[in-house]
Design goal:
Layout: E1 7-12, H1 16-28, E2 30-36, H2 43-56, E3 64-66, H3 81-84, H4 106-116, E4 121-124, H5 129-137, H6 141-144, E5 147-151, H7 166-170, H8 172-179, E6 186-189, H9 191-194, E7 198-199, H10 201-211, H11 218-233, E8 239-240, H12 242-251, E9 256-261, E10 263-265, E11 276-278, E12 291-297, H13 299-312
Parallel strand pairs: 1-2, 1-4, 2-3, 4-5, 5-6, 6-12
Antiparallel strand pairs: 7-8, 9-12, 10-11
Helix pairs in contact: 1-2, 1-11, 1-12, 4-5, 5-8, 10-11, 10-13
Bound molecules: beta-D-ribofuranose (BDR) and calcium ion.
Calcium ion binds near residues 39, 125, 126 and 243.
Length: about 325
């Protein structure tokens, strides 16, 4: 059995569920580095949050590179502070990071790093702005990567508009570049599956009891806020920690799976902007597939994995 952890770059916009994704990646992947992108909150905050989370998780040496703040179109109507709070970390303001970002050139770093080593997974849990720029400038990256696992889109409509999921809605032009880049292993972990893996109040209370006063107990505060916001603003019965699943797809491939399908990204201005149009027709001769669309998840095992991972960070 191959027990080597997958080499991974995590491109994220922390963000409450991104924080959980970082924890999974730090523990279960061989994390080459983190790149920050503007999304849930602005780039300055997402970068600082990634750095602070590395400190909390006892991983202060992981490289963190700041990338793009705004989507390729150059403008953004609003961020996601109604779900993630003004700092992207709920009602908590994380302690100032112990260091500055390694660089402000995430795209260049991504290109150099992926070119230098074959077989790295790129996991993206925010708008695809950094990833699109990297693939546009260096189309050869596709042959080097093990794959790209993206939390975004979905098969059944959106959460930001009726048609679009947040990451896809923020930067559809970037998503289109990535989906049309010819990547042979592109994975879309969308709302159709992330809305099935919920962390409810009982789960969070049990986590609180396990983490006690440990510094990692800040995750209980983060999830508390997230769960409350989602319960107030949606009909979901708990917190959907979307981003964690894009990491888990790589680190625990037995827990999620999908089908390769044609996917189109809608960039038109109007109500469908940012929609990921997945061709689900049961045709005998479908168009060539673009991505693996994740369609099932082992809900209980994923809830347990996240629980055990966070408990595993407690300093004994
Ligand atoms: C996605 O949008 C963001 O608010 C979350 O961090 C996640 O990446 C869910 O639609
Ligand atoms: Ca995110």
């Amino acid at each position: 059995m191959n027990t080597r952890k997958p080499r991974m770059i995590l491109d994220c916009d922390p963000g409450l569920d991104d924080a959980v994704a970082i924890a999974l990646a730090v523990h279960h992947a061989d994390l080459v580095g983190i790149t920050a992108v503007g999304g849930n909150v602005g780039l300055e905050r997402t970068t600082a949050n990634a750095l602070s989370l590395c400190d909390i998780l006892g991983a202060p040496d992981i490289e963190v590179h700041a990338g793009q703040d705004l989507p390729l179109s150059g403008s953004l109507e609003h961020r996601a502070t109604e779900y993630h709070g003004p700092y992207g970390t709920g009602s908590v303001q994380l302690r100032e990071p112990s260091r500055e970002a390694t660089s402000k050139k995430a795209v260049e770093w991504m290109i150099d790093t992926i070119r230098a080593e074959a077989g790295i997974w790129l996991v993206a849990t925010g708008p695809l702005t950094n990833v699109a720029l990297a693939l546009q400038r260096a189309p050869d990256l596709g042959d080097q990567l093990a794959g790209v696992s993206w939390m975004g889109g979905g098969t059944v409509g959106g959460n930001t508009t009726a048609g679009a999921e947040f990451n896809s809605w923020v930067d559809p032009e970037a998503a289109k570049i990535v989906f049309e880049s010819g990547l042979s292993n592109l994975v879309m972990v969308g709302l159709n599956v992330t809305h099935t893996v919920l962390l409810d109040r009982d789960w969070i209370d049990q986590l609180g009891a396990e983490l006690g006063e440990d510094p990692v107990a800040v995750f209980v505060d983060l999830l508390d806020y997230y769960e409350l916001r989602q319960r107030r603003m949606t009909t979901l019965a708990g917190a959907a920690v979307h981003d964690a699943l894009a990491v888990a797809y790589v680190t625990h491939p037995q827990l999620l799976g999908g089908v390769r399908r044609p996917v189109e990204i809608v960039c038109d201005i109007g109500p469908t902007r940012g929609m990921t149009l997945v061709d689900l027709r049961p045709r005998r001769h479908p168009d060539p597939p673009t991505a693996t669309v994740v369609e099932w998840a082992d809900v209980h095992a994923l809830q347990q994995l996240i629980f055990d991972t966070l408990v595993g960070f407690v300093q004994s």
